[in-house]
Design brief:
206 residues, alpha+beta, 7-stranded mixed β-sheet
């Protein structure tokens, strides 16, 4: 049986928010969904589809690269539509999911996508005490410029202290697992730990 795919209406935002929040570490609200439909480069009638328990939006990154944001339990019909629309906007198609979403990642592989990159979600328990850094004599905190990496570290520490002051229990962020600047190592030095991994896949259209 063919699935009825359609472009979503404003009243569908709550349903889409629920689909987008599945298998995702942070919940998505309806306002974020509505904003995504009016973001630059998105035509809701052409780039967004809602199906039975599944959702997809096609983002053009540039003239050659396209990102498929696929949520819920995508049907073959939804995936066919998403790839067809993506090929109208570029030749390099990217998609991804958290490593725990094995079903979606498996579907991507069967459709010719291959893993190309990973990002990490890192978190820290704000209830634990973070040790104060020991600074060499003459080091001071000021506006960041190239070479001020340790000062940037101190800014992170102050941010976590402010979070604790406000009663927040955990803080998290995303970082490229293959960061050329070593950002993930910097965050580890502040006491953050990897809590999840996002796998990015690519398919090149000949």
């Amino acid at each position: 049986m063919n699935e009825m795919l359609r472009s979503p209406r404003d009243e569908d935002a709550a349903t889409v928010a629920g689909l987008m929040s599945r298998d995702w570490p942070d919940p998505i609200d309806t306002q974020s969904v509505l904003r995504s439909w009016t973001s630059p480069g998105i035509d809701r009638e052409l780039d967004v589809r809602l199906g039975q328990a599944c959702y997809a939006i096609v983002h053009g990154l540039d003239r050659a690269r396209v990102w498929l944001d696929i949520r819920g339990h995508p049907s073959g019909e939804l995936l066919d539509w998403a790839e067809a629309r993506a090929t109208e906007r570029g030749r390099r198609i990217f998609a991804g999911a958290w490593s725990t979403n094995e079903s979606l990642l498996g579907v991507l592989v069967t459709r010719g996508f291959w893993p190309v990159r990973y990002s990490q979600r890192m978190e820290i328990d704000l209830g634990a005490l973070t040790p104060e850094p020991s600074w060499p004599e003459g080091v001071q905190v000021r506006t960041f410029r190239f070479g001020d990496e340790r000062a940037f570290y101190e800014l992170h520490q102050e941010t976590f202290r402010e979070f604790r002051h406000r009663g927040l229990r955990r803080a998290g962020l995303g970082v490229d697992a293959e960061s050329l600047t070593g950002a993930n190592r910097l965050y580890e030095e502040t006491g953050m730990k990897v809590s999840a991994r996002f796998d990015i896949f690519e398919k090149v259209i000949a």
